[in-house]
Amino acid sequence: MTGWAWWYPVLAVVAVAVGVYFAVQGAARRGADRVTCWSHTLMAAGMAAMFSPWPNLIPTLAGILVFTVLGAWFAAVRLRSGPDGTGEATHVAVGAAAMVVMYLGMSSPS
Fold first, then answer.
1. pTM, two decimal places
2. Are 66 and 26 in contact (CB under 8 A)?
3. What digits encode the pLDDT tens for the residues 45-70?
4. Residue 69 main-chain phi, psi, to 5 deg
């Protein structure tokens, strides 16, 4: 592997570990906290797939659609909560938007 490519499998394993952590946390929680944890699990799985040495583990269009819906849902949650709402929904919405941008970047020609 040339350049920084040797680092990608390490990052993929770290992303899987983060995903497992949030999956376990989500299983132990209720309501909105559970959905938030599982959203982090989904984002970690997407990152692991991006760093994986195997190409196209998650099709680009599927990733874009899933994270667009996820981001829109959490953005709506944040807007409904009004000015006194916590930043947790904003955090997940921004993370989902970042995932969409990364998937869009993967689909562009090099």
1. 0.83
2. no
3. 999 998 887 777 788 899 999 999 99
4. -65, -45
